[in-house]
Amino acid sequence: MLENILEGLNPQQEEAVKHFKGPLLILAGAGSGKTRVLTHRIAYLIDYYDVNPYHILALTFTNKAAGEMRERVDQIVGYGSENIWVSTFHSTCVRILRRYIEVLGYKRSFTIYDADDQRALMREIIKFLDLDPKKYKERAFLNVISNAKDELIGPEEYARRAQGDKMREIYARAYQEYEKRLRDANALDFDDLICKTIQMFQENQDILSYYQNRFRYIMVDEYQDTNTAQFKLISLMASTPSENGGVEHNLCVVGDDDQSIYKFRGANIMNILNFEQEYPDTRVIRLEENYRSTQNILDAANAVIHNNTKRKEKALWTRKDKGDSIYYSQFENEYEEAEAVSSAIARAVENGEASYKDFAVLYRTNAQSRVFEEKLINYNIPYRIVGAVNFYQRKEIKDILAYLRTIENGMDDISAKRIINVPKRGIGLTTIDRVSNYAIIHGISFYNALRDYEYIENIGRSATKLGSFVGLIESFRTSLEDPDYSIEQLVRDVVEQTGYEAMLSEDDTEESQARLENIEELINKAASYEEEHEEDGATLGGFLEEVALVADIDNVDDSTDIVLLMTLHSAKGLEFPYVYLVGMEDGIFPGAMAVYGEDPEQAAEEMEEERRLCYVGITRAMKKLSLSCARSRFRNGEHQYNRPSRFISEIPRYLIHAGTGSSTASSGGVSAAEFLKHQPGGISFGTGQSNRGSFSNTSNGFSGSSYGNGSAGRSYGTGTWNPAAEQRVKQSGH
Ligand code: ATP
Ligand code: MG
User: Fold this and answer.
1) Could you tell me which residues belong to the region Disordered (predicted)?
2) Annotated active-site positions, please?
3) What number is the ipTM of this complex?
4) What atom in ligand 1 is closest to the CA of residue 291?
């Protein structure tokens, strides 16, 4: 066993894996085995130090990563892995809160509001506060609130700080109302999951002690993206009474400051930089060998990130070969770009060079996926979009879940309002408003107000309609009292008896057919949930909880042979043999805020964050990286003409193979030398004339309109070519 755990590790990795007690910080670049070290360390703790798996907590970034980690430990140790607590921050907090949240005055069956629910709620609040919805956007309010929560600033504290600032005073009122309504609905938003757990720990020493004692070894992956609240949470828990009567901080965090990409979500890079201050006895280990990518890919990544000023310099090298060049192409428009990528994937799979699952297409924003979907479908390529419209965010799924929540917990107004007239029951907005007012006056939930339908004034004939809606919900509640009545059956009954199924069947379009299939999938999900919880008791609340927390990436099964499409953010921590980084255009990636931002300081910071994102993207690739951009694309209702991303010009040109770029075959393209020869003015990459048509290359995929067949001004690069970057990489000489 033991040999297995340490086998193949380099000396620094081994040192980290063998580390037993006290704080440990592993700071290292992409692909250097940080996640692997965490996994092996868990195995080592169990196998060598005889730590009970029950005392281990590992926090990962996605549920997928959690699953993989557990599986790996299982492979190495062969026992106990089911007792390790491996999960994301959010799932961890949900588990803790489900157990103890009553001390904060919530019910354990609390609902978790997703972004949609939050927006619906905030729209109501804006209306309630008599603010002009044209001027005040719910998104801005929600951002303010989320940022405050990330910094652990509650509504009262926020209001205090806001005094004297008109706009912030308005935010403060909205924040207060938002909190009140969430509480009345027995609901938490995503940020609350962390904040309420902290609050609970701070106010209840006994609960905190329980977890401090339980989680004697805590490990955190992707530590660079933790925010202030998350750090507070970790540091509260990572304080275990030791045998000699003192306190131990058996906390091991791994991260890469160059991959910090969630500043917009409050990630606090200072968490890394201050770790050693917080824990003066920290052992710091750096890993420098990259095991993932070829030399060329690594050189490109290093060169790009080198343009950031605020960073800790790291040397990352690989013993792998140079490998393929970095492929680069500019296309006429986004359709040609997607066409080229799709045809290249199709051909590579046809030739037997690779499987679909070896490919990932990464882009900056979710909206970019649509065109790729269309083309992939044309080529019959199986694919999945990670993180876009999550299964659970589809309308029909949210509707059915809203029914289930109303049945489970009539306190959730957003859910009840969502479905009161879906399918149509002739209940209008005026009636809904009257019911809402009644609810506010009486301090009860919307659904409970509905139950009083006979007493609500001025609703006329609608009363009967409300009555039958209430009757329906109550009949489900009665059914649920029967212990033999399954959740699967409940979902079936809801779909049928509410008329939802009939509504879709009548519609009889392909879309409604797809919706019915999705609902069937939800029913399957309910059945499998019940199977899994046969012993510890399946409940409707438990089912809703599980459903609320699955991020889309969790549904990605490694064994399925499909191409994955996702944003760069979702790709963190993952690796693929072939990566397409698409839409590499100034204004897209780096995004408009970084390129055109008015405040220069802020724009510069944005740019550094975008560059880290680019570093993340490049370092996902193991064997081959293809970059592409489009000369024009349709965006926000107009044709945009973007320059190629400055990040492309930050890659030393000798690493780039241009004009082709998509096929997995390395032959048949245009050589870098040839590519340079065709550049106007040699290698200026500036804004001068570009040549026409000389680079069309049809032999390996990017047919026809590869870069260069256009007119003046459509240059290649941004004039910020950086010969120094090339120099540096050359000198580093790995
Ligand atoms: P990221 O920063 O992207 O999260 P990471 O530092 O977590 O990367 P891992 O994902 O742990 O890196 O490792 C990258 C790849 O290198 C994985 O495929 C892993 O299995 C492999 N690897 C890591 N260490 C070794 C080793 N000592 N021997 C062989 N392969 C290794
Ligand atoms: Mg990792």
Assistant:
1) 718-734
2) 34-35, 221-222, 259, 620
3) 0.99
4) 16
